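input
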Amino acid sequence: MRNKGFTLLELLVVIVILGILATYVGTRIMGKPEEARQTQAKIQIQALENALNMYRLDNGEYPSTEQGLKALVEKPSVGNIPKTWREGGYLDKPRVPKDPWKNDYAYLNPGVRNTNSFDLFSYGADGQPGGEDNDQDIGNWEVETGQ
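output
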């Protein structure tokens, strides 16, 4: 009667194959964290843009630059005080999210790039205006045009 099981050589071959696969998959996934952060920033910008649009529907105008994104979670106390501000705010959580690099999103109303409305953007990985690649600014002007 023959013993059923794996030999040491067969086990070593399987372990080597799994190691090669793990290395290949790991480098493909781990090599793109900045792309993931940029995508997360674009998604958060779209969500904040939707909340700002709801604010405008309720109040007739977007928050001013001075009121900022904080107007989405707290009724403004400066500038044009909204009369129909939604109790509980316009975001699911009682705080404005930070960008994926732990910085505040920038908000300008009226916008510089979106002159008919507002600019909402992250300065990217370096937290500074401008930049290229991972450091480039990510804004609602890119989300709308798909750039």
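quick obs: The longest strand covers residues 119-122.
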